[in-house]
Amino acid sequence: MHGNDQAIGSDIGCSLSATLAASSIAQTARVANVQLVVNAFHGHAHNHMCQLQYHPLYLPGTGLEDFETCERVFSSSNATAALIRHASYFHYIQYLDLHFSQWDADKYAELSTLLLFRLVRQLIWFQVASSLTTTSRLSGSSPQTWQNLMHIVRCIQMKP
After folding, report:
1. Quick one: which of 1, 59, 9, 8 has its CA closest to 27?
2. pTM above 0.70, yes or no
3. Domain map (residue ranges) of the chain
């Protein structure tokens, strides 16, 4: 176990919970508050009661996580199959290492771009909010009017 209050996503999280409850680590899992979850995409194929109990959409603490990261990683590695099918063991491992190193670099680059974009957006937002506050004092408009306007602008700009 890697600590308390962990959620583990699996295509069969609902049936896996019964397996975990009957296993030798059941008591350790209960004490650590391990929660088994059905991946968001696969969860929609399960029955209604299963979704209510195991789908991340309905579970507090899972946030916006869809538990599909492994699916995306391994799906991307499918492209390597044709290239390494007849390779030697050394070149097979070498190419997989190259693939996943590039995967990591691409994800970190995307994350950096996303964080930079959000930082710039917030800095622009603070500049606009500051200008609106100054303008409202100068023009005599009520602060509530400007707060409502700022709320509308904030709702429009929710996406990254």
Report:
1. 1
2. no
3. 1-67, 69-160
